[in-house]
Amino acid sequence: MQLSREALLNAYRAMKTIREFEERLHVEIQTGEIAGFTHLYCGQEAVAVGVCEHLGTRDRIVSTHRGHGHCLAKGCDVEGMMKEIWGSREGLCKGKGGSMHIADADKGMLGANGIVGAGAPIAVGAALASRANGPGPDGLDVAIAFSGDGACNQGTTFEAMNLAVVTQAPCIFVFENNHYSEHTGFSYAVGTDRDIASRAEAFGMKAWRADGTDFFAVHETMREVLAHVRGGGGPAAVEFDTERFFGHFEGDPQRYRGPGEIDRIRAERDCLTRFRAAVTAAGLLEHSDIDALDTQVMDTIEAAVSAARAAARPTAEDVLADVYISY
Amino acid sequence: MTKMMYRDAVLSTIMEEMARDPDVVVLGEDVVGGMGTAGGPEAIGGIWSTSTGLYDRFGPGRVIDTPISESAIVGAAAGLALSGKRPVAELMFADFIGVCLDQLWNQIAKFRYMFGGKSRCPAVIRMAYGAGFNAAAQHSQSVHQILTGMPGLKVVMPATPADVKGLLRTAIRDDDPVIFLEHKALYATSGDVPDDPDFMIPFGHARLCRAGGDVTIVSTGLLLGMCEAAADRLAAEGIGCDVIDLRTTSPLDEETILDSVEVTGRLVVVDEAPPRCGLAADLRALVAEKAFSSLKAPPLQVTPPHTPIPFARELESAYLPSVDKIEDAVRRVLAWR
Amino acid sequence: MPDIRPFCMPKWGIEMTEGTLAEWKLEEGAAFSRGQLLCLIETAKITNEVEAEWDGVLARVLVPAGGDPQPVGALLAVLAEPGASAQDVDAFIAGFRPADASVAARGAAAPASAPAPAAEPAAPRPLLTNRAISPEARKLAEQSGLDIEPIEGSGRNGRITLQDVQQALRAPARPALQGALAAPEEDHAVFASPLARRLAALHGIALGSITGTGPRGRISKADVLALVPQPGSAPVIGTAPFVPVPNPPTVVPFDRVRKVVAQRLTQAKQEIPHFYLRTSARLDELLALRKTANLVLGSKATINDYLVRATALALAQHGDVNVQVHGDSVHRFAHADIAIAVASPKGLVTPIVRQADRQGIAAIAQATRALIDKAQAGKLAYEDMDGGTFSISNLGMFGVEEFAAIINPPQAAILAVGAAARRPCERADGSVGFETRLALTLSVDHRAIDGAAGAAFLATLKDLLETPERLFA
């Protein structure tokens, strides 16, 4: 199904925003200005955007420690996120969450999560809420559990998949297989012969597989998945084969990478390059359109970083706020 | 007032709250019971009979029978709560927090704070705790000492049917995550319960079960009955005990404890959890810090020993606090010279 | 060799040199246990009960009750474990040497029954035990000769702690019990702390009308106490018919302290030619000043503390009042040591504020507070009460308007202080106003102090109280 010019521009802008957000963080982190652990999503942008372009705010997602891309794709404010990562009290979570714990319930973003595999049961809960609410004009609202190939080995993920099947909850398990669980290879850590999607199938749900570096493949696959789930077909799973351009965390020496691996995946498997090539070759967009977006995005990120630097710092009194609604 | 059992107070409160608020949903293992069997739904109706009839009345959308998957149960409760529902999840045995601790501790407890106060997680996690049924080390524990130590959770331990009613209603209507601990040895006990459909007991409001000016006894749950029995025995000798039921260990009613110790100068904390790093140690430290000048004797604790819970009848009764042990502790604080 | 120990005249306080054995509480040859009362020993200041520190037998009494005063360190009796023979005891007495050389010197001039010199009496005996015991606990057990075997150690694996030893050394506790009370009925409609409920029930206050200021908006005791009517409302008079009942006396024999007080005061009132000087001082300035001074100094000085200060300054100016009478001579002192009369559980005691003329008001306040606390706990030591150049007795807190006190020998004067009261007075313009006045009565020993000297002292004191800035000079 052909996307409109506007939809294409939006998709590119979203992916490019994630890319520049991450590339900029990669630079800024070297200066020591940003505290704590940061896990960059760079390379996987087509998945977050290809999935979230289909979603409304009533659809909910649960993310991972590598969550910036999901947050941005689901509509979280760029500046609010940048401020959060800088630890400002003006951040999306008032400086209490940081990179690993960004959420914006109003946007249907239930939270990034520092615990690998913890998100899947929460997504099932969100899906059960949707099931209890019943379908709207476009069918059921869905909940999406983003997981990596690491989380697919956690018992919580298995429990969540089984519970979703048992309760026929409108939940979609999106496995982004970037071939690394932290510093360990997929071929070692995932014991299933073929892939992750087959595990989901074993739990009794329909599963799809697609190239996660091809925005159009992701987008088209998700159209089918969503039609199935929104229509009351029960939970589903999708495995996207994708790439992680940076290490597990910022500062990871990445000694596990093969020779020239990063250069190769950047050259051959960059979803942005592939998007640009596809749309210009098909005559859907001009290079100049995309260049203009690049400039816009750079400006947005530059402005967000400046704002984060200048934003108010939290104070010791803020430590005590927001823990209970009443106590 | 209506006389009812502790377990019926649980069930009727859930029933009433589900009828009042369509956002209240129930989930847990066997909360329906019999799903996928020849007996069919409601063949069991919850192993504690605290969910009997909910499925028939409110249907599968709001009464969710789950597989044995505690992480998924608590995680789903979290997701439901973040999505605007008021889930009441049941863990069957409190000991099972071991298999879902991450969801309780790293997820539910932390959402509100970690996400800058914007996320609400109004989940109630009910669980049956406590010894007295020879259920041995993995089905008898009192876990409040672990959960009370987790910022972000509220922890409720009702001791009477009336308190179940008032506190569970408060828990369901509360906008924070609440751990609701039901003592299994209390399920079959009866008591008067107010009929007011909005009867609620605020959290952090201890109950004074016995009054006396000589020793303060603080406890929760099943052990309160023993504390009251000990206080009654001692009263016959002219020894008066304030027996305080904390009702909630988080928030803690510091004021009631300190008010009492300022008069008595002597404290005995009676707790079913092991002795180290627990409620009893915490309260004794509180009093040592904030009522030091009132103390006439070192505060004592009556707890089980620092061992797992044994199985055999003789062993379990030797393990648990008893009326005699409580009485002995009261005499020991009074004998301090 | 059986365990034989000397029982010597104790030394309570730096100035005690001798004491009188007032009464033996058991016969020679009688057995005693730890904590049992052995005897009463009287000094110039107090009568003390002496308790046994271990279990044994009063093997030999060397100094009978009621005899002459004995020097500190003098051997009064020999204590031994049961089974010690008379020969063992004789040998012990023969070999006994008092610890203090000066006592030994005095002992030479003492009666024949006085001890002969011997080895060290109270060397701690090493504790031989396999029990786990903390170093400090072991030290104390050794010093006190305590048998640690019966102690149930409270430490890990039964280790004996210092606290366990201290507990074992104390007499059994007999706490005053309050007994059970009626637990307040819980009213679920109102959110109030249990104490607030009790207070409300006690004072008949309806909780429903109160807005709670306690934790989580709860009604706390402070909220209820704010509504408690101040005392002074009329008592309810019973309407039951009057029935007379027998009214027999409860006979309470004088204890030792009361005996000493009775004897001393009778002697003072009979032997000392008292005369009395009365005046009153305007207190308004002092009351006003005290408020701000206490704020500034951060102290809680009472009117009595200011009186001590003023009296001390007046005594410094009038050295002829700051005296003691000893037989045919008058002792004068450079500084004023002021005894304050305090009611204690053991009766009237008079601890001393030392060199009050050299101490500021805050220091005096602190000193008197400490002395009063000790007195009320029954823990005043001999040195807290030894000496004194002047006494103050204040009954103002009971509303006594004025009274005259009996001099406490060897002191030569005592000031009796009544209540501060509002009195009408003539103002400078001739109109009538009110002022706060304090009645002062000085009892004076005419043997040492003449009327004019006493009056001059009293005038200075009155002047200091009425111009209180000088109390801070």
From TrEMBL, chain A:
Entries under InterPro entries matching the protein: DH_E1, PDH_E1_Alpha_Subunit, THDP-binding
Lineage top rank: taxon: Bacteria
Cofactor or coenzyme needed: thiamine diphosphate
Keyword annotations of the record: Oxidoreductase, Thiamine pyrophosphate
Residue ranges annotated for the Dehydrogenase E1 component domain, each copy included: 14-316
TM stretches of this protein: none
CDD domains: TPP_E1_PDC_ADC_BCADC (cd02000)
Catalysis performed (reactions): N(6)-[(R)-lipoyl]-L-lysyl-[protein] + pyruvate + H(+) = N(6)-[(R)-S(8)-acetyldihydrolipoyl]-L-lysyl-[protein] + CO2
UniProt xrefs under Gene3D superfamilies: 3.40.50.970
Pfam families in UniProt: E1_dh
Function: The pyruvate dehydrogenase complex catalyzes the overall conversion of pyruvate to acetyl-CoA and CO(2). It contains multiple copies of three enzymatic components: pyruvate dehydrogenase (E1), dihydrolipoamide acetyltransferase (E2) and lipoamide dehydrogenase (E3).
This protein's name: Thiamine pyrophosphate-dependent dehydrogenase E1 component subunit alpha
From TrEMBL, chain B:
UniProt enzyme class: oxidoreductase
The Transketolase-like pyrimidine-binding domain, residue ranges: 4-189
EC number assigned by the record: 1.2.4.-
Coiled-coil blocks: none
Domain of life: Bacteria
One Gene Ontology molecular-function label: oxidoreductase activity
Pfam families: Transket_pyr, Transketolase_C
UniProt keyword annotation of Transit peptide present: no
Keywords assigned: Oxidoreductase
PANTHER family: ACETOIN:2,6-DICHLOROPHENOLINDOPHENOL OXIDOREDUCTASE SUBUNIT BETA, PYRUVATE DEHYDROGENASE E1 COMPONENT BETA SUBUNIT
Stated name of the protein: Alpha-ketoacid dehydrogenase subunit beta
TrEMBL record, chain C:
SUPFAM superfamilies documented for this protein: CoA-dependent acyltransferases, Peripheral subunit-binding domain of 2-oxo acid dehydrogenase complex, Single hybrid motif
Xref: Gene3D superfamilies: 2.40.50.100, Chloramphenicol acetyltransferase-like domain, E3-binding domain
Keyword entries, A-Z: Acyltransferase, Lipoyl, Transferase
EC number: 2.3.1.-
Pfam families in UniProt: 2-oxoacid_dh, Biotin_lipoyl, E3_binding
Cofactor: (R)-lipoate
PANTHER family xref list: DIHYDROLIPOAMIDE ACETYL/SUCCINYL-TRANSFERASE-RELATED, DIHYDROLIPOYLLYSINE-RESIDUE ACETYLTRANSFERASE COMPONENT 5 OF PYRUVATE DEHYDROGENASE COMPLEX, CHLOROPLASTIC
Protein name per UniProt: Dihydrolipoamide acetyltransferase component of pyruvate dehydrogenase complex
Species of the source: Novosphingobium pokkalii
